[in-house]
Amino acid sequence: MPLFKKKEQSAQPNLEQLLSEFNRSLALIVDKQLLIGNIVAKVKQICPVESIYIFLLDENTGKYKQQNEAKNKPVVLTSRSRLVSWLSVNEKHLIVSDYPDIINYFPKEEQEALRQLGAELVFPLKVMNQTNGTIFIGKKNDGTRFTEQELNLLSILINQANFAIEHAS
Hints:
Layout: H1 15-28, H2 32-46, E1 52-58, E2 63-66, E3 77-78, H3 82-90, E4 94-95, H4 100-105, H5 108-117, E5 119-127, E6 130-138, H6 148-168
């Protein structure tokens, strides 16, 4: 009989510890690009996904600029886009595959942007009632749907990250 029992490795990361570490890192990182890299890494730690793209509003141009590396041609979103309007009004994430009618409401170029980015989830980044950005999250690597727990945890993480991005800006 072993003196110490080997602790079983859980499939899910310790969510409380993950959020605690993330909060500490948000307080320490002031460089916007490092912060964005940290956010991307934490989202992938919560649920391994194919892709994550973060867009932030450039107030000078009124366009949302992609902040992290692009694997394909650049996507342009404006503050007048129907997708951004939908996110602003509904103040919640959009699960692309669950709402084809909403996606069909968007103009062809926005539908193409969602397809090009491989987006399955789109979260608004809101501060003081203004949508300052969006996060596009691709499908999960294992092909399963996002669980309610994952969606709730992503919402918490993205809300925390949103204030940190705003502060770094």
